[in-house]
Design goal:
mainly alpha
């Protein structure tokens, strides 16, 4: 392959960078998804709405009970992955439970 030849991957990267540059220049809007950053009170409300203790909430959704306590008391803020998980738990808790259940295969 010569320097003048472009690979498919290279062309995709070039196109993506063009989209980013157009976005930065406010020439286009890129689709985005905003993940809610739940405040301590929202995490408490979510858990209480499900009528679960911290430990049971942690066990059901694969979380650390100590982390939940720290989030609820405002000592820590959930990282991005935890915020995504909490957002999904808030809207589709059964989907998370199914995803975390051992497969019956």
């Amino acid at each position: 392959m010569t320097m003048d030849e472009r690979t498919e991957t290279g062309l995709e990267i070039e196109a993506a960078l063009g989209e980013v540059l157009a976005h930065v220049r406010a020439e286009t809007a890129l689709p985005c998804r905003i993940v809610d950053d739940p405040a301590a009170t929202r995490i408490v409300a979510l858990r209480k709405r499900m009528k679960l203790s911290r430990q049971k909430f942690a066990d059901r959704f694969g979380l650390d009970a100590r982390a939940i306590q720290d989030w609820e008391q405002g000592r820590r803020v959930p990282d991005r992955a935890a915020r995504v998980l909490l957002t999904v738990i808030d809207s589709e808790p059964d989907a998370v439970i199914r995803a975390l259940s051992p497969s019956s295969d």
